[in-house]
Amino acid sequence: MRRVSIFGATGSIGQNTIDLIARDPDAYDVVALTGARNVEQLAKDARRLNADVAVTADDTQLDHLRELLAGSGVDAAAGQAALHEAAQRPVDWFMSAIVGAAGLAPSLNALQQGATLALANKESLVCAGSLMLATAQGHNARILPVDSEHSAVFQGLVGEDMDAVERVIITASGGAFRDWPIEKLQDATLAQASSHPNWDMGQRITIDSASMFNKAMELIETKEYFGVAPSRIEVLVHPESMIHALVGFHDGALMAHVGPPDMRHAIGYALHWPERKTLPVERLDLAQIGALTFRAPDTVRWPALRLAREVMERGGLSGAVFNAAKEAALDGFIDGHLKFTAMADVVDAVLTGMDGHGGHIDDKMTLDNVAHVDHLARIAARAEIKKRAG
Ligand code: NAD
Ligand code: MG
């Protein structure tokens, strides 16, 4: 039996992971499941999968979680210390699917114990790519990508020599506002930004898809995972979301990864790697689909892509600043304090403002320093949001 933990078990990726694991219960020994607010779901899954422990990040929910788990044999725990303790329980496979920078510490804990890390939490690589890779190397741990594009690139590289790679192309659906007139974007509402044409995901990544901040993060993620120079990484708008990424080689060949927009493929690939096992995803009928379309990304419509390029060139802790400013701006938009298009303005202003004396972007990449610039960037972002609201 393989010991597995799922951090962020109640979210979209977490639930898809549980769907796969629950189909073959005898193959897995579930150690820890974690969530935040939705403790009912957490308790239900912890009972069903007979987990050792269920942890909620929200410590006001501990009593409620305990009641829900009474008599089940599953331990209940809450708060940051409990999450930290649970992330250190030995496992073979660890799903990191918390949303946001809060996912970084558990990702590192998983690597420190030498587990295979299935990494959905892209923020871990955006904020602390070199720290993640060094930690993996230092503990003989492996990181397997659970982002559709990066899983696609990873699969396209099997048996290939990185020296033969000329470019990596990640595709983008274009999100909710792909075809909107640019001048209408500033009036986009939360409800409009929260619905994705192709993928069913958590609310934050769905809005990030509409603003292209998700793709911006994925550019940085690509650079960190595969060590590809930024100038060799391209974004291609592909409205159908069937091709997830392409790897281009020196001989002119492009290897495309084609599949339905269903995260259970990338999760399942990481779960069974290096084998391939049958997965419950739709089989594409390309004759039925008929045509796939592509277009160049519009950097006026999506300034997030330009910001990501600046971060890739800047290096240091600029990724952590970028991510924290983006998270704060997203909160501002969700709370109604910021217009949709102003999110990129806030991130731009914070990156510029912190790129100098006292910005700490050139500090050594440690977890503490990442947390420090994250904290400073959120303060700066809130000030920028206030300026724009007032
Ligand atoms: P989600 O919002 O559906 O779920 C997030 C999970 O994190 C929930 O279990 C929630 O309880 C938990 N959580 C939230 N804040 C927390 C905190 N401060 N501390 C501890 N736990 C917290 O998100 P999602 O769509 O499943 O995305 C999860 C991660 O996977 C994100 O990093 C996202 O970018 C990435 N990802 C998601 C998809 C997708 O299809 N949903 C695809 C690729 C990558
Ligand atoms: Mg993706």
TrEMBL record:
Example GO molecular function: NADPH binding
Binding positions for NADPH per the UniProt entry: T10, G11, S12, I13, A36, R37, N38, N121, E123, G202
Cofactor(s) needed: Mg(2+); Mn(2+)
Catalytic activity: 2-C-methyl-D-erythritol 4-phosphate + NADP(+) = 1-deoxy-D-xylulose 5-phosphate + NADPH + H(+)
EC number of the protein: 1.1.1.267
Domain (DXP reductoisomerase C-terminal) ranges: 259-378
GO biological process terms, semicolon-separated: isopentenyl diphosphate biosynthetic process, methylerythritol 4-phosphate pathway involved in terpenoid biosynthetic process
InterPro entries, A to Z: DXP_reductoisomerase, DXP_reductoisomerase_C, DXP_reductoisomerase_N, DXPR_C, DXPR_C_sf, NAD(P)-bd_dom_sf
Positions with a binding annotation for Mn(2+): D147, E149, E218
Residue span(s) of domain 1-deoxy-D-xylulose 5-phosphate reductoisomerase N-terminal: 4-129
First-tier enzyme category under EC: oxidoreductase
UniProt entry keywords in alphabetical sequence: Isomerase, Isoprene biosynthesis, Magnesium, Manganese, Metal-binding, NADP, Oxidoreductase
Residues that, per the record, bind 1-deoxy-D-xylulose 5-phosphate: K122, S148, E149, S173, H196, S209, N214, K215, E218
Associated pathway: Isoprenoid biosynthesis; isopentenyl diphosphate biosynthesis via DXP pathway; isopentenyl diphosphate from 1-deoxy-D-xylulose 5-phosphate: step 1/6
Domain 1-deoxy-D-xylulose 5-phosphate reductoisomerase C-terminal, first and last residues per copy: 143-226
Keyword DNA damage listed: no
Cited function: Catalyzes the NADPH-dependent rearrangement and reduction of 1-deoxy-D-xylulose-5-phosphate (DXP) to 2-C-methyl-D-erythritol 4-phosphate (MEP).
HAMAP family documented for this protein: DXP_reductoisom (MF_00183)
Family: Belongs to the DXR family.
Protein name: 1-deoxy-D-xylulose 5-phosphate reductoisomerase
Organism for this UniProt entry: Ascidiaceihabitans donghaensis
Gene: dxr
